[in-house]
Amino acid sequence: xxxxxxxxxxxxxxxxxxxxxxxxxxxxxxxxxxxxxxxxxxxxxxxxxxxxxxxxxxxxxxxxxxxxxxxxxxxxxxxxxxxxxxxxxxxxxxxxxxxxxxxxxxxxxxxxxxxxxxxxxxxxxxxxxxxxxxxxxxxxxxxxxxxxxxxxxxxxxxxxxxxxxxxxxxxxxxxxxxxxxxxxxxxxxxxxxxxxxxxxxxxxxxxxxxxxxxxxxxxxxxxxxxxxxxxxxxxxxxxxxxxxxxxxxxxxxxxxxxxxxxxxxxxxxxxxxxxxxxxxxxxxxxxxxxxxxxxxxxxxxxxxxxxxxxxxxxxxxxxxxxxxxxxxxxxxxxxxxxxxxxxxxxxxxxxxxxxxxxxx
Length: 360
Prior knowledge:
Elements: H1 4-14, H2 25-31, E1 35-36, H3 42-48, H4 56-64, E2 68-72, E3 78-82, H5 83-109, H6 114-127, H7 132-142, H8 148-158, E4 161-163, E5 178-180, H9 181-185, H10 196-206, H11 211-218, H12 224-228, E6 234-237, E7 243-246, E8 262-264, H13 283-289, E9 299-302, E10 305-315, E11 318-325, H14 331-348, E12 354-359
Parallel strand pairs: 11-12
Antiparallel strand pairs: 1-3, 2-3, 2-4, 4-5, 6-7, 8-9, 9-10, 10-11
Helix pairs in contact: 5-8, 6-8, 7-8
């Protein structure tokens, strides 16, 4: 039986949060099986808190050179992944993305030949990188009686589209524009659609985990049969008696191993990759972190668990780090949060001349 604290330490170890890892940015992104990336900046902060010596240009250079891309993958959300993982993972998720499309836009797309929509959409974005809005307008010229937004989303889910720079560069703004992964990377997507390898990689980055956890992370269904056909996996039970699956040699640190304070960005993977998030935050805390409009707020980990929120407010030459603990911190915890917060400000607001840290 693995208790909550043991699962917490295992997750932190595999998420490179017990200590900063001596990895390249690309190596960390590959180990994490991508990073949640609805907004451009959070992956930079997520790598800073995980990778020893990480610099902004370490990731920006990968985006410019097409070694990493932003693409719709797990759960139908934007992920930052290596080029290799983009081409390998997208075919595994095709059926789930098509099912999600039918669930959300089925009525508005009813009667359409979706294969034809996908072909035209592919042709349009390979001619010129397009925003969702512009793609929808152009598709509506062919199907004027259809909702342009639904048409654009049909292409989004049926065709592997990547966001092209400057989207994904620190501090850059503007609409996201898209082209196909194949044209951007100059290679075809993989032909293997079996999820077995994806499941193993999930366990390496997030395990031990239940089948429901794996399904919540991936958006895939019926994975019980997949874990059962992987005979090398070992099994445990959690405090509720649920069966947990894991790789045979994956680390299980001592539950009392000390954990440094960590600042996690918006949409961090660690908050979104389990059906049962008790190993990292309580249900009460989840309601404070997950907003009604779909945002996942930036959090602070103290002793490995979510203990509050943070945000940076920058005006002209001044940068303020505002920290909102969910409950009172001890003096030692408060000092540790402030020390790590100072390092965060030096990284994320390097151009500021004055810094301030406020607990509210």
